Amino acid sequence: MFEPICAICTPYGSSAISIIRCSGASSIELANKIFKGKDLSKASANTIWYGHIYDNDEVIDEVMVSIFKAPKSFTCEDSVEISCHGGIYVTNRVLKTLLKNGFRMAEPGEFSKRAFLNGRIDLVQAESIMDMVSAKNKLALGIANNGISKNTSNMINDLRKEVLDILVDIEVNIDYPEYTDIPEIEYKNLKDRIESIILKMEKILKKSSGGKLIREGIKTVIVGKPNVGKSSLLNTLLDEEKAIVSDIEGTTRDYIEGFLNIGGITLNLIDTAGIRESSDEIERIGVERSLSKIDSADLVLVLLDNSRKLSSLDLEILDKTKDKKRIVIMNKIDLNKENDYDADIFISINDNKGLDKLEDKILDVLNLNEFNTTDSNYLSNVRHIDLLEKSLDSLKEAIKGIDRMMEVDMISIDIKDSLNLMGEIVGESNTELVIDRLFSRFCLGK
Ligand SMILES: Nc1nc2c(ncn2[C@@H]2O[C@H](COP(=O)(O)OP(=O)(O)OP(=O)(O)O)[C@@H](O)[C@H]2O)c(=O)[nH]1
Ligand SMILES: [Mg+2]
After folding, report:
1. What are the residues whose beta carbons fall under 8 Å from the beta carbon of 119, sequence distance 6 or more?
2. Cβ–ligand 1 contact at 231 (below 6 Å)
3. CB within 8 A of 415, min separation 6: which ones?
4. Distance 134 CA to ligand 1 centre (A)
5. Number of structural domains, the chain?
6. 31-45, pLDDT tens digit by residue?
7. How far is the CA of 443 from the centre of ligand 2 (A)?
């Protein structure tokens, strides 16, 4: 067991109760020093006790104390959870009393890190706990649950096992060279097996882009020339007068953001300054920002104006966004038609027409229509996706080696790399540095 740590694990502020979590060697004995009600050192595992916290002779609070014993706790260590009254002052006093009596403050994520280091959860599960805390919608919750329940880890572990089996067979071949009498056939068998794993990995990665978008939210930028109704669209979608709308061109000078939930996914919606040449310094900076937002967007909503002819500016914007996932929206269809462009959808914000089609179109363009978290053959975390891509690359290198009839033990180096990279996903071949960095992103008390 590691040294005793403690932290407040409920939000900072006034509430009905606050919970202070303690874990590590002697944590039950140390908590017992400041608790009166029951001799906690004699308490059995998984019990809750009523009593008072004392700072020397001073009563601090009336509390309930939960006792967990190693290895049956979140951290796999002896742990104590103190439920005290939820005032800021009283919670801090209980915490300070613990600190005076042998505990030290936990670092962010330290409880989860211990759960990982003590073998209670793997790295994917640990990261999914954070995803659970930050889940903003139903699908994100489904993704987090897949991670916590080990579905994601199992999928990776199955692939690891297949790769490991290949490596074992290679070792056998190297140790018993009589089996490599007919090298062509051995190579073919090796190649078939690796290719079948590659196919599985590619399938997972293909689905993973959806998982990533759901987990992180979809950065959606509304662009168009001045006055097409970008700010009107933002306000309508958010159902809030967030951006100023006027018939003066160049009303929006800087980008404005809001969050929108549709069909179980979260859009981070960004209204931008209308794109045009401008001599006004501030507007020019705004236009530059609009253009840079296009580059980093997951989805671009390009707005055109039905009442004005398609202009060179429109064409320029259409050209700048042609390689992005985008939806071209023709707005102001309540006015006389002057624009022949064959847009993806036609709307009138003023008359509230056509907007209902936008949601389906968004899911369509992002391939999220069929995304379903109950089947778990995808990844959602960029770290995992990145490692699986690298692992896949290593297998492709191995295939190249086979095609060149390289020595089998040379080929096995790439296969080993692939295995190690997948091991990093679940936390079985991580450096300490990676682990420290990862857990430091957790919140305090987690
Ligand atoms: N007739 C009609 N007018 C609209 C519609 N949508 C927006 N407008 C009007 O168009 C004008 C410009 O709207 P904004 O939303 O400010 O346009 P914008 O694209 O944000 O403009 P900039 O910020 O200047 O780039 C306003 O007067 C809106 O009321 C529509 O569907 N029909
Ligand atoms: Mg605007």
Report:
1. 76
2. yes
3. 163, 166, 167, 170, 194, 394, 395, 398
4. 35
5. 3
6. 999 999 999 999 999
7. 37
Ligand 1 neighbour 208 (Cβ under 6 A): no
Answer yes or no: is the C-beta of 331 below 6 A from any ligand 1 atom: yes
Ligand 1 lined by 350 (C-beta under 6 Å): yes
Q: What is the pLDDT of residues 310-339, one digit of tens each?
A: 998 899 999 999 999 999 999 999 999 999
Burial bucket for residue 423 (CB in 10 Å: 0-12, 13-18, 19+) = buried
Has this prediction a pTM greater than 0.85?
A: no
Amino acid at 91: T
Q: Tokens 């930028």 belong to which residue?
A: 221
C-alpha distance from residue 398 to each of 18, 137, 326, 373, 408 (Å): 55, 41, 37, 32, 9
Residues 65 and 96 in one domain: yes
pLDDT digits (tens, 9 = 90+) for 388-445: 999 999 999 999 999 998 888 889 899 999 999 999 999 887 567 667 777 777 777 7
CATH number of the domain encompassing residue 111 = 3.30.1360.120
